Amino acid sequence: MASQDTQQAPNASMEQRLAAVERVLEVRAHDKGLSVDGTMEWQEENLLAENGAKVVARAWTDPAFRQRLLADGKAAIAEFGIGLPAIQRQVYVLENTPAVHNVIVCTLCSCTATTLIGPPPNWYEDLEYRARVVREARTVLQEMGCPVAPETEVRVWDTTADTRFMVLPMQPPETIGWPEDKLASIVTRDSLIGVARLSGTGG
Amino acid sequence: MDGMHDLGGRQGFGKVGFTPKASPFQAAWEKRTYALRTMAGQLGVYNIDEYRHAVERMDPRHSVSASYYERVLTAIATLLVEKGVTTRAELEELAGGGFALSHPGAGGRTNAPDRKSFQRGERVRVRNDFVPGHVRLPGYIRGKTGVVMVEGPLTPFPDAHAHGLEAVDEPTYDVQFRSEDLWPGGAESAVIHVAVFQSYLEAVA
Fold it and tell me: pLDDT for A52-63, tens place per residue?
């Protein structure tokens, strides 16, 4: 690989490079009461697509909440005790309808509303999705098993600043009348990104 | 900078490596790197824009061949060296091998002195700016015209914030573009929403 150095040893393994960085930060982290293990635990408990699923289920069953969610996402998710990391200033909730299909991306890196969607899946970070979905969303969605009818408008949301996005998927008609917790159980992370539709049979 | 990270609209890629309900992490070290990034951010050695720019400054060959979490770790290590927390030699000794870092960056710039406020529904043009340092303007909207939908939250100007310059908070605008305007004759029909910093926009005469 090209480098500023004329000669360079082959890179150490990722595990070794990670261990080296951890070692370098150990004392500073300890002084601030932080640790990688502690952070990992917090992330496992807090960065969950299940959070977004709960919000969606409430929006499906409570029209007043749905209005609040679409008007001010940050304030509405706070009703569930869900916050945003400090750098994430606001979250726009994007309502899918028969006429409009929303899908989100971050073409410059891989920004995501992590407290609602969880850490992004690997394909969301890959070059293919980031390059293609803004320019050929219909083909990409078709390839991903989520075809969009020609008469439906596709809206692609590129996360280029510190506003985050979450898709509010359409409720499958067969689930009308279900209790909120059962509805939440069918909402997938992929549907919150806008690359999957939902069904009442767990599809 | 017009780097390899600025991928929107680039052609020649194959299918998205999608599997339904895919795991975010492909290995234990990736999950640990994700936690390390958050923890390192909380240490206050560098800010989010410096971090993003350190990813962008990776050598193009390294950047394209690296996994997402290799890019994350490379950026963190680069900043720890640049901020004087460690040295490349120390990292390589601890790792027991090479530790490729990002290239040094060019300079940044401060908020546009002539930036203006825009109203919902107003047509705006993205300035035809070519910026050697950090910028959150994807190349595919440069010079293009769109419509302001919403004035978004105040955010430190990234082009300055990534370079230790005074970064005044400014609004980002949700600007709606049509794919047909971004890639005339070369895109599928869609509406593209981009969050655009105020300094990147000018009024359409």
Answer: 999 999 999 999
Instruction: Walk me through the domains of chain B, giving residue ranges and CATH numbers.
Output: 1-103 (1.10.472.20), 123-203 (2.30.30.50)
* Of A1, A120, A136, Cβ closest to residue B62: A1
Q: What is the ipTM of this complex?
A: 0.97
Sequence ranges of the domains in chain A: 14-44, 48-193
- Residue B160, SS3 per DSSP: helix
Q: pLDDT tens-digit profile of A2-13?
A: 445 545 789 999
Give the span between the Cα atoms of A132 and A128, in whole angstroms: 6
Nearest CA in chain B to A42: B35
- Helix ranges, chain B (H): 28-42, 48-56, 60-65, 68-82, 88-95, 158-161, 179-182
Which of A7, A13, A18, A192 has the most B C-beta neighbours within 10 Å, making it the best mutation to test the interface with B? A18
Cα-Cα-Cα-Cα dihedral sign, residues A155, A159, A160, A161: positive
CATH class, range A48-193: alpha beta
Rounded CA gap, B114 and B16, in Å? 41
